[in-house]
Design brief:
heterodimer, A: 442 residues, alpha/beta, Rossmann fold, Ubiquitin-like (UB roll), de novo design (two linked rop proteins), 5-stranded mixed sheet, 4-stranded parallel sheet, 11% strand, disordered C terminus, B: 206 residues, alpha+beta, Arc Repressor Mutant, subunit A, Glutaredoxin, 9 helices, 4 strands, elongated
């Protein structure tokens, strides 16, 4: 039985492996009933209105209103596209993996209904290359849906068509950025594009394109089935609905928990995920994946877990992925680990990101080796400020925000490491962080 | 005066970037799309790539899936395999190479048959991902059948520290289990059955 704090909508029946099959999805969750009703009885504007009224905010990171985004697509006979962003690569995020693995048909039904709202005739699921098992599950589910007449030409005899292709990537974090995803899907290197034009106007193959995250689209059948009013009954006014939250790091029971948005963050971390290991305390946490500025335990644990509360605290809900750092984690090493990731994943197109991530890594390496001077700390901070807002996409910002926050909030820890080389517990810290500080026994 | 300064007016006395006439590498002509009869593409590979191209409004969208097909067939994206795919897709080999070199899972150099990617990103790192990577490297040392590498977040922080072994996820792993997994792979046995992600329930169900 799920914990009483959980509110399962997207993960309802997810414990049953039968849900993966079309029969099981129909039997357990009333699957495809909403698609049938939408395709037979609803017009594009009706579906769109329901999505707009629901206030559903994108679950991929930016939190933009999904219905509004869909309404930006121009009307007309040109080819329009829908892309499901299943390139979940944000460190700390693993909710889409769970949703695709356990309930692939919910996503397919959501895509088909959203395609109605966007008037798209061609849809793609761009799944990250590492998720090979989940791609296989989706492939099988898509084949079943075609077989049953929910996809393809003349769906359910309504003269509406939808082709759905599962497109597996090949390993690049940047492809989760929507315009890089489009380039990758067009068969190129995944480099972000200049915006505007936004994909809603000029996206895949130059056509209007709606891009949504897996979890966002998985919400669509439920909203159209029960109505926008029902959906708004969950969560807060500005963050309606439930959210599958990935909790990981220094907690006893890491995993995905579906809760109403606005639940106290402490309940998520301490009650659902079991809290920190015995004898340890939470020092800080990333509230929305590794791109979100870290919050100290005392500033963040008592906030409601919602888009607005996290923004007000100077961070963000992002993809809804909490990474908990307990008192053994050395923040300078954490900053280095975070910066290395973005340095590795920078596509190299924009100088502030390419050079900024590179120099941040080099300076942080000097710090944890005890070779830095206090001036370096100020330079690290200024490099972060010079990245934010100066690139085509937000990859650079995604490093600058958390690293900047770590230096700002834990400055004394950086200074201590720099001034007392004996604090650097492991001379090989550049290739391996000191296990004593990192919970070797966890 | 550089050619750029004189842009707009043609002056035959100015040095001209050879790339304009000869391609990016001086002395080498612009690369051409290979013809099918020049590349000896196995029929199954050709059919597979043709089917993949048919799934998209633009054939070039099939470049990543085509490279996956090449990698599956030859073990890695060999120059010959890339030429074959390029001939089928009617693009230059350089185009496909530029794609292959961008993505971490496509290998443009030979790699072992068994591929192990160990996550060393934040959540796994906190729980010993680096040591797990070392353990895998030590256990597979000297065996060319294995390709072991550290990897950025694989999207399985709930089973940290974890590894992707031949494209399936396993975790949470003790460093000692690295050796077990390598032995099981050598014996062609099922790998760490009790640690497979596919067999896990939802975290909230206890």
């Amino acid at each position: 039985m799920p914990h009483q704090l959980e509110k399962r909508v997207l993960l309802d029946h997810a414990e049953d492996p039968a849900l993966r099959t079309l029969d099981g999805y129909r039997r357990l969750a009333g699957g495809y009933e909403t698609l049938e009703r939408a395709y037979r009885d609803m017009e594009q504007d009706e579906v769109l209105k329901e999505l707009e009224d629901s206030g559903l905010r994108g679950r991929g990171g930016a939190g933009f209103a999904m219905g509004k985004k869909a309404s930006f697509l121009p009307r007309g006979d040109m080819a329009k596209y829908l892309c499901c962003n299943a390139d979940e690569s944000e460190p700390g995020a693993f909710k889409d993996r769970e949703l695709m693995q356990r309930n692939p048909h919910q996503l397919i039904e959501g895509i088909a209904i959203a395609a109605l709202a966007a008037d798209a005739g061609h849809a793609f699921i761009f799944i990250r290359g590492e998720y090979a098992a989940q791609a296989d599950i989706l492939d099988a589910a898509v084949a079943e849906a075609y077989e049953a007449g929910y996809l393809g030409k003349n769906i359910l005899g309504t003269h509406r068509d939808l082709e759905l292709v599962v497109h597996r990537g090949a390993g690049a974090y940047i492809c989760g950025e929507e315009t890089a995803l489009l380039d990758a899907l067009e068969g190129k290197r995944g480099n972000p594009r200049l915006k505007p034009p936004f994909p809603a106007v000029q996206g895949l193959y130059g056509g209007p394109t709606l891009i949504n995250n897996v979890e966002t689209l998985s919400n669509v059948p439920h909203i159209v089935r029960h109505g926008a009013g029902w959906f708004k009954g969950f969560g807060t006014e500005q963050s309606p609905g439930t959210k599958v939250v990935s909790v990981s790091g220094g907690v006893k029971r890491p995993g995905n928990y579906e809760v109403e948005l606005g639940i106290p963050t402490r309940e998520l971390i301490c009650d659902l995920a079991g809290g920190p290991e015995d004898g340890h305390e939470i020092k800080a946490f990333f509230p929305g994946g590794s791109s979100s500025p870290v919050l100290k335990a005392e500033e963040g644990l008592d906030l409601p877990y919602s888009f607005e509360a996290m923004a007000e605290a100077g961070s963000m809900l992002g993809s809804g992925s909490i990474i908990v750092c307990d008192d053994r984690v050395s923040i300078p090493h954490l900053a280095l680990r975070t910066a290395r990731f973005y340095h590795h994943e920078s596509c190299g197109k924009c100088a502030p990101c390419r050079e900024g991530t590179n120099w941040t890594v080099k300076m942080l390496e000097r710090m944890v080796r005890g070779e830095a001077t206090p001036l370096d700390l100020d330079i690290v901070s200024s490099v972060q400020q010079n990245i934010i807002g100066h690139c085509l996409c937000v990859l650079g910002d995604s490093m600058a925000m958390p690293v900047g926050a770590m230096v700002r909030k834990f400055r004394e820890e950086f200074e201590a490491v720099m001034e007392n080389p004996e604090l650097v517990l492991d001379p090989h810290a550049v290739v391996q962080a000191p296990p004593e500080t990192l919970g070797a026994s966890v | 005066m550089s050619p750029v300064d004189g842009a707009g007016a043609f002056n035959p006395n100015l040095p001209v970037d050879p790339a304009v006439r000869e391609g990016r590498i001086p002395g080498r002509a612009e690369e051409e799309i290979p013809e099918l009869h020049e590349v000896d593409c196995p029929p199954e590979l050709r059919e597979r790539i043709e089917a993949l191209m048919g799934r998209y409004p633009d054939r070039r969208s099939a470049s990543i899936p085509a490279l996956w097909a090449v990698q599956e067939r030859y073990g890695w994206c060999t120059p010959e395999g890339i030429r074959q795919a390029a001939a089928v897709m009617r693009v230059t080999p350089a185009y496909l190479e530029s794609v292959a070199s961008f993505y971490d899972l496509l290998h443009t150099k030979p790699v072992g048959r068994h591929r192990i990617e160990v996550c060393t990103n934040i959540s796994c790192w906190m729980r010993g991902g680096d040591r797990l990577l070392d353990a895998f490297k030590a256990a597979a040392e000297g065996d060319e059948d294995f390709f072991v590498t550290g990897f950025e977040c694989l999207g399985a922080c709930d089973i940290a520290p974890m590894a992707s072994i031949n494209q399936r996820y396993y975790g949470p792993l003790e460093a000692a289990e690295a050796g077990t997994a390598i032995e099981q792979l050598r014996a062609e046995a099922e790998v760490l059955p009790e640690k497979a992600l596919a067999k896990r329930g939802l975290a909230g169900d206890g």
